[in-house]
Specification:
mainly alpha; Cytochrome Bc1 Complex, Chain D, domain 2; two-stranded antiparallel ribbon
Length: about 325
């Protein structure tokens, strides 16, 4: 009886210590992830951090059309918002990653992003007293820095950038006229304008994306003459996920092939992942290449192209388009 009691007591003490330590470890991992996210020393030229392209004041997106990496190299993609990224099922505009831990790996080693040579280059930059303490606190059972730990910490931090249950912020009740226009825009979004066909959501909640791939509203007109050469070139060069990432940064024409570089499906030439519309007013410029400067222009372009794509033009008046923009601007999270 005494042995049973002692064993039970030991088990309880072990559980209690673990339960007490777990929140501290989780906090330490998030803090480590935040430090990694903001550390410019982890780029090849020591001048660029993740936070320089995913800026908190812009809903963790970039206010430049295309992001600038190490040594001033400009890539071919606009950096999307990271708010709520932990609830996504695919990552990057072409969806080449399906795990957040894998997605955070890539930017370290892409020439047009942080530009490091390899994992050893990264781990050597983490070999200092401050980071050793951080890794020990975040991973007490295996405190040495490793790529797995870097990925886990960054993913933990990014998952903390939540969208508050993805519930849109309520509009003010002090301006009845504004509220009426927002309500009209909401009806258009879920009805006549057909936005919800790609930006899935219920009337009260949702991430406002289907995480699927659709032809870009920018179209392929400028690439049409080159497609017979670009398609086989993309198929031959995009041999793995890392190659897709490099091609998307280095070759602007191949980057326009979009999801096709990943799955080689003809229907996905120039197709890109549907971005979330939460906090959309804070994430200009728009589209995968940042070529659309304002939300109003993005709405006009999408309405035109979606009507063209379906063969049934969407007839929205100028007033209705304005009301739709009013509603989109309310999709903010605290």
């Amino acid at each position: 009886m005494a042995r049973t009691y002692l064993a039970a007591l030991c088990l309880f003490v072990t559980w209690f210590c673990y339960a007490k330590e777990l929140p501290q470890t989780a906090d330490a991992r998030r803090e480590l992830g935040a430090a990694l996210f903001n550390d410019r020393a982890l780029s090849a030229d020591g001048r660029v951090a993740c936070s320089d392209c995913h800026r908190p004041e812009h809903a963790f997106s970039d206010d430049h059309p295309r992001s600038t990496g190490a040594f001033g190299r400009i890539g071919n993609r606009n950096a999307p918002s990271l708010l709520g990224v932990g609830t996504s099922t695919v990552y990057f505009w072409d969806g080449r990653r399906t795990r957040l831990e894998d997605a955070v790996h890539d930017p370290f080693f892409m020439p047009f992003e942080l530009g490091l040579r390899d994992e050893r280059d990264l781990l050597e930059r983490l070999d200092n007293i401050d980071y050793r303490r951080r890794f020990e606190a975040a991973f007490p059972d295996a405190p040495d820095a490793s790529m797995d730990h870097v990925e886990a910490a960054l993913a933990s931090y990014l998952r903390s950038l939540a969208n508050d249950g993805t519930r849109p912020r309520e509009t003010s009740r002090t301006d009845p006229t504004l509220d009426r226009r927002v309500a009209m825009g909401k009806r258009l979004f879920f009805g006549k304008a057909q936005c919800v066909a790609c930006h899935e959501a219920s009337a009260d909640s949702g991430r406002y994306t289907d995480d699927r791939f659709h032809p870009s509203a920018l179209g392929t007109r400028k690439l049409a003459a080159q497609l017979p050469q670009l398609v086989p070139l993309g198929m031959s060069k995009a041999t793995d996920v890392e190659a897709v990432g490099r091609l998307s940064g280095e070759n602007r024409d191949l980057a326009e092939l979009g999801r096709f570089l990943v799955d080689k499906q003809p229907a996905h030439v120039n197709a890109f992942r549907t971005p979330s519309l939460l906090n959309v007013a804070a994430t200009a410029p728009y589209m995968h290449d940042g070529s659309v400067a304002t939300l109003e222009q993005a709405v006009d372009l999408e309405i035109y192209y979606r009507g063209l794509e379906s063969g049934r033009p969407l007839q929205l008046t100028s007033e209705e388009r304005t009301e739709l923009v009013f509603f989109l601007k309310t999709l903010r999270t605290p």
